[in-house]
Q: What sequence folds into this?
């Protein structure tokens, strides 16, 4: 199944390291960082699970729940979490989906046959409280994710929704944002009384919080 930005994230019910979960119900009114891994007890995955746990406070500040997935059983997840906690000096509290039969991995197109028929690639889905997919990323099995970028894009999406703006390349919180082309200058004067700079008529930059 090919999923696109703007699609409703498919619902599912499945076992996890925290017991059975029904995805949409579990998500509630939070944003979701849903990310998959090839397998338990593997080195890159161990660092990524650990980094996600270390950033628990950062995700919480953004009303975002992490949800991991690996194509192993819940019992294997629990044993692996002990290793993650010990080697990464953290405490994994978020659930890891137990997807040994590949049900969810196939639903979210996480199995790429040129990589593996039984293990998921490193997929990322950022899902908003309306259960809409807002961002997708796919990393190969041998490259870990950039968690600074994951937090940055959640910040960008949330500010874009709040202020109806767009973000320039390499945007970081506190940087200027772009007034979309769909907003006329007359509309912009009402929405952005702080004003803007326009090096070109189609490129209007302003400050928002």
A:
């Amino acid at each position: 199944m090919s999923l696109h930005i703007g699609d409703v994230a498919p619902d599912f019910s499945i076992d996890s390291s925290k017991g059975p979960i029904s995805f949409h119900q579990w998500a509630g009114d939070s944003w979701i960082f849903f990310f998959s891994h090839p397998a338990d007890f593997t080195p890159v995955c161990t660092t990524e699970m650990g980094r996600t746990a270390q950033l628990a406070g950062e995700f919480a500040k953004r009303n975002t729940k992490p949800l991991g997935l690996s194509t192993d059983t819940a019992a294997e997840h629990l044993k692996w979490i002990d290793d993650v906690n010990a080697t990464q000096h953290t405490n994994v509290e978020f659930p890891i989906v137990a997807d040994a039969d590949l049900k969810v991995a196939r639903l979210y197109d996480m199995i790429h046959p040129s990589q593996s028929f039984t293990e998921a690639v490193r997929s990322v889905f950022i899902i908003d409280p309306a259960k809409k997919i807002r961002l997708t990323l796919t990393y190969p099995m041998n490259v870990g994710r950039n968690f600074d970028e994951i937090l940055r894009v959640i910040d960008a999406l949330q500010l874009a929704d709040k202020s109806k703006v767009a973000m320039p390349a390499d945007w970081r919180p506190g940087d200027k944002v772009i007034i979309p082309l769909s907003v006329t200058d007359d509309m912009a004067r009402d929405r952005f009384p702080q004003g803007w700079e326009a090096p070109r008529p189609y490129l209007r930059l302003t400050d928002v919080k």
Summary: The mean pLDDT is 95.
